[in-house]
Amino acid sequence: MEPIKIMPCLDMKNGRVVKGVHFVNIKEAGDPVENAAFYQVEGADELAMLDIAATLENRKTRLEWVKKVSAVLSIPLTVGGGISSIEDIEMVLGAGANKVSMNSAAVKNPDLVRQAAKKYGSDKITVAIDAKRNAAMPSGFELVVSGGTLPIAKDAVAWAKQCQELGAGVILPTSMDGDGTKAGYDIPFTKAISSVVTLPVVASGGAGKLEDFYEAVVEGGASVLLAASVFHFRMLKIQDVKDYLRGKGLTVA
After folding, report:
1. Hey, which residues are catalytic here?
2. Global pTM value
């Protein structure tokens, strides 16, 4: 098994890092460049930066944010939000991102995932999958797009499998039921995804305590652990999480 990686996430709005609960009730959480530099020193293995309002505001990712944040990093940076074409991917990678994350645009045009993977390599293409519980879906999880505002009657787990077939290199599932709650990752959702793909799965949404990170790996099958609130508000240090996981016998990057 690959070593477990820790990935803080900068949710961006109006040039600042923010954090919400269930994708709403947004709170300010600092400057993106300062946060990025801090997390790298703290021992982050990768960093995610998501422009959470881009799709809703029908605009592209702000490239100046990507340039400023990537300039202070030597760890890989995944950038998402408003990426809807090969040209967008080209610009975001050109601005310093190592990987791009697509969500709504991939759902709308699955061939974009195939084209992007073919052109840039699967390792640069992450597909983010937002979902909420819906018993009417075969897996029990319904795909939600447009920044978590629009359920589309499509099975989220079947979509993850399709993304792997299209050439995606990483799947980043976020449970809207858990996002920002600090009540723990949605293990059944993470497990449902990791059991149908062979790609790295990023656990996302709801980390609140050390045990949550361990459960995401052992029960959820995740190999990358993304968290925002617990790091932004300094409830946990990255090194604490890594030491805890090592103490539990896991191999950590």
Report:
1. 11, 130
2. 0.91
